[in-house]
Amino acid sequence: MRHALTALATLATLPAAAQELIVYTYDSFTSEWGPGPVIEAAFEAECGCELTFVGTGDGAAMVARLQLEGAGTDADVVLGLDTNLTHAAAETGLFAPAPTDMPAPDLPVVWEDPTFVPFDWSYFAFIYDTTVLAEPPTSFESLAESDVSIVIQDPRSSTPGLGLLMWVDALYGEEAGAIWGELADNIVTVTPGWSEAYGLFLEGEADMVLSYTTSPAYHLIAEEDGTKAAAPFEAGHYMQVEVAGQLASTDQPELAEAFLRFIATPPFQSALPTTQWMYPAFPTPLPEGYETLHVPETALLLPAEEAAARRDAALALWREALSR
Amino acid sequence: MAGGAEPVIGAVGLVLGLLVLAVCAAPIAALMQAATPGTWAGADTAILRFTLMQAVLSALLSVALAVPLARALALRRFPGRGALLTLLGAPFLLPALVAVLGLLAIWGRGGVISDGLALVGRGPLDIYGLGGILLAHVFFNLPLVTRLLLQGWAAIPAEQLRLAAGLGFRPADQFRHVEWPMLREVVPGAALLVFLLCTTSFAIALTLGGGPGSTTVEVAIYQAIRFEFDLGRAGLLALVQTGLCLCLAGLLMLAGRPVTAQGGLLPEAGGVERHGWRRGADSALLLGAVALLGLPLLAIVLRGLPGLAELDGSVLRAVGRSLAVALSSAAICVLWALGIAAGLVRLAERLPRLARAAEGAMLITLAVSPFVLAAGLFLLLRGRVDPFAIALPMVVLVNALMSLPFALRALVPALALARRTDGRLADALGLRGWTRWRVALLPRLRGPLGFSAGLAAALSMGDLGVIALFGSTSTSTLPLVVYQLMGAYRMEAAAGAALLLLALSLALFAAFDLWGRRA
User: Fold this and answer.
1) Min distance A228 CA to chain B CA atoms (Å)
2) Among B100, B222, B489, whose Cβ lies nearest the Cβ of A218?
3) Domains of chain A, CATH where assigned
4) Residue of A nearest to B482 (CA)
5) What residues of chain A lie within 8 A of the CB of B472, using their CB?
6) CA distance linking residue B468 with residue B465, whole number of Å
7) Predicted complex ipTM exceeds 0.85
8) Does pTM surpass 0.90?
9) Per-residue pLDDT tens for B37-94?
10) Chain B closest CA to A189's CA: distance in Å?
11) B269: helix, strand or coil
12) Interface contact flag, B486 A199, Cβ < 8 Å
């Protein structure tokens, strides 16, 4: 009898004894087809804790939700912001500095952000079907002069859309409005998010879609379809770097730090290329097929603070030019 | 009279109605209070103008097509009519993204029509812009308006039609004397519903609008909340949008004639003989409607079939969750609407104009942006309850609210009619309480009840708005799974999940609707 009681008491205290780390991320990261499940199992085996991913819309929705919740948030770590959002996120004062002993990431640009740890990245690019388009444009100018049709995402509601906005801004600055004006007749439509745009492209609604240089890897590896390629732009490609950060209000600071360090390790990084279809941010062998991808010679990325400062003016130019 | 319970029912209706207003107004107030109120920019006026313009055009177009279509469906009897009536529920309950892909399979640059044009050397069809927005809104709302108008035709007592035939009325006379008065009562309300639905258009306006020139207020609200975290601005935009919609709704409700329910036997299912060109025109119209609504649905089915095999356990769990959400919000919506309708009908017997204004006020649930509703409720409940725990109940509540105006639209006239006819009979016989409901009122309400429950269930099945902010992995519903699959490049599986969603929503709608129509 006493043994049974002891056993019951042990059972009752077990769940409370296991520490829980709550990580906010976007939906597709945690879905069955994303890297979430593999990473969760690997980290739980290492830390002896419970890792809970909470999927909340996309990156922008995550920042909005954090601001709604304030310091009372249950989240310990946030995973899936990109460099266009990090400045706004850091400004909320809700984030704690990253561990100082992180290894150096493997990125085409220098990484000096004291708060956020990168976990994956890729270059924005226009994806086309090689059986439909023989000679893709090699610059925004030649795209604007051609009658190649494109689908893009709205920078007000999607991170790739915002990436394209900053890409054009980084290349053309004050002249961006003129470029957008010339691109207007190439743009079939502007969608709220990446999924809609990519779906429209695959349905044949446009010749090219704004996506990533790593997108063709999905078709090649998962579908054994080698007909999708990224159009190489000579002036360079803007990058998207996805990052994670630890919240200052966390009740599990050690676990949160351990998770950020775990990001740099092979169990985490090796899950990314065939689930996120992005490059891992720390040195990791890439699966077969990635060697076929186009690697731009010039990587463009505005520092987070500058990107945030330039955003509103760039958005106004974009709206002005495309509303006509 | 069945006196005793009347004031109680009136009071319950009043409380339920005020609760609707509170749940909608509180989030806007919460947003405006949370931050410094935003300022109105010149560009906002242009956005507001575009929003109202596309909504008005969508409403006019939907009604203009729905009147002849509903008439043909009401007057004619043909094999497959029942199936067609059920099919009319389908477009309305599709998630916007799925419907858009279905529409583009027919109308898009890579669609069937463009392929046909290419054969004769013509360029692809380009529907992006106002045309595309209107096409999608008509695709969504034409069936809804048709169903609402059909209820109007069903409410015309069969003996009136027979009398008209006996008196040798020509079809034009019959239209003027019998059908036109009914349309004058039903059309403004139905048009108003479409107008309000289209003012909060988000994904359709963005995807098919072609560019930022087609920005709706809803897009600006989304941007303010998610992108700039400017809650004060979101609150201001929502206030202007909701206020303007409510003013328009109030005017239209007051200008329209109060519903004068007519007595008669239960309308019976019997067609009217139609001859010559009228018969041909009816048939052409029906075929056209089947093509307009059916072909995009067929495209969704064909695209989805190969993907069905790829669906796994997580999709099934989402199905279970979606069904639970759908059934709960249908139950809440119908009970809520029944309470309000009972109160409104009693009010209408004494103060018809006030009752119409009150019914107009209930339309607020369609004019309020779901994003504002979600963010505002989140703010109000912050720190009091666990947001994860309330995610699904919140989705249930918001969806029940969004379906409320449709349920009221269907229930109020039917309840008024029932009270004037069989209700009086029941009073004369001394029937009271539940027996009075069961024997006298319910048989007349069965149709509208089934329709409302089906619509509410199917609508919440396809909802995506609220879950996006409140959701977490353990709450992902079927529409969210469609998005997640697309986000993971798995377009084929996503098409399969979309087909599953379409089939389940339609089955839910059909089950309730058939229960209601099996009078």
Assistant:
1) 13
2) B489
3) 20-121+240-290 (3.40.190.10), 122-239+296-323 (3.40.190.10)
4) A195
5) 54-56
6) 6
7) no
8) no
9) 777 877 888 899 999 999 999 999 999 999 999 988 888 888 888 888 878 877 877 7
10) 4
11) coil
12) yes
